[in-house]
Design brief:
- By secondary structure, the chain is of the alpha+beta class.
- The protein has 10 helices and 4 strands.
- The chain folds into 2 domains: 116 residues, no CATH class; 128 residues, Alpha-Beta Plaits (2-Layer Sandwich).
- Strands 2-3-1-4 form a 4-stranded antiparallel sheet, sandwiched between helices.
- The longest helix has 23 residues.
Length: 264
Amino acid sequence: MRDWPLRCDARTLQRSLRSRWRTASLAAGWPFPGDWEVAAVDGVCAAVVAGEDPSEALAELGASRAESGVGLAGTLHDLAALHAVSGAASDGLVSADPDAVPAPLIRTTALGWADAVSGMVVRREVEDPLTGLNTVDYLRTRLHEVYRQARARGSTADEDYALITVVLGASGPGYPPMVAMVLIADVLRTVFDAGETTALLRAATAAVLAPRTPDLRRRCLQARRMIEHRLAGDPALRDCGQVRFQRERLPADHEQVCELLATL
């Protein structure tokens, strides 16, 4: 960034820079006027005014923009607006040129943006978007941890944990089975909310991986009753068939349990 003229106190300079930056960014086509000011903006302004390395603040800005749904192009145009006004004495009506921004600043901001996007993608990939249950890939990973834990304890996974499958009688495309699975998923997340893993194995099959505790059977019965009650309450779902709860025996090793998941 350019040298900032020290004409008044730092707080005033930061407010002035923020105002001029926003004006330049809007003029450059920023599409979300109400969402421009985020906490990371103040961090960037403070670093620029103090003459400090803004890399960390710019990485946070890039991440914040990504989390707000701003694309990389929009983020870099916003950065160009900052660069255009950071050392000028204008009112912010300047030309924001991304090609004029030093490469290290672009790289830092873009990496912050990309890291945030990658994190969001990973979070989405471990959850089914319709039901909110974990994916079968996540369940495989969780089972891998369970088998390692059992080996360290000198026990077996089946002694420590129970794998419960919840199967809807009707399957296939269409409104009723889809809505029924959403209701089933909500019940499973409600009843098994103490660290158990709930996952969607197939369109009409969910699973719960839970420690073997004295009240596990009671909780399964509670979940069954809640599911039956909710499905019976919607006339459109009454033909979805019965919901079957079944405990699956966990085999000797992780490779075998992955084969089991593929057949359920």
